[in-house]
Amino acid sequence: MDNWFTIDKIDYETIIISEYRHWEETHCYLLNGKKKSLLIDTGLGISNIYDEVRNLTDKPIAAVATHIHWNHIGGHKYFPEFAHHSLDIQPEILIRMASAFRQLKADGKLHHGSGTYHYGDWGVWL
Question: Is 0.85 topped by the overall pTM?
Fold first, then answer.
């Protein structure tokens, strides 16, 4: 999805990656170290944040979640090195989320403004 992310460079080491096209206006933070980069939160998962981060750094990237709400872990699937607090995440919700997003994509509904979709104990507002 073109232009999904808004990039604000505070300085070379600190970059804010925002998703203003969604009502929650999610913000993720890329910290570039000397040898490695750290992405704090991976956003909504509507658009591929990994590709965006690759445009901002050539260093290896680790991702970490501040907490396990869907708008903070939506893009975790793009990062082999993804850290979280083990007591905060429940694996079954990740499986259900992945399935729901695959179905929304297959139905042509995975885009801004397509609606609100409820899945029992969680929902998606696009």
Answer: no
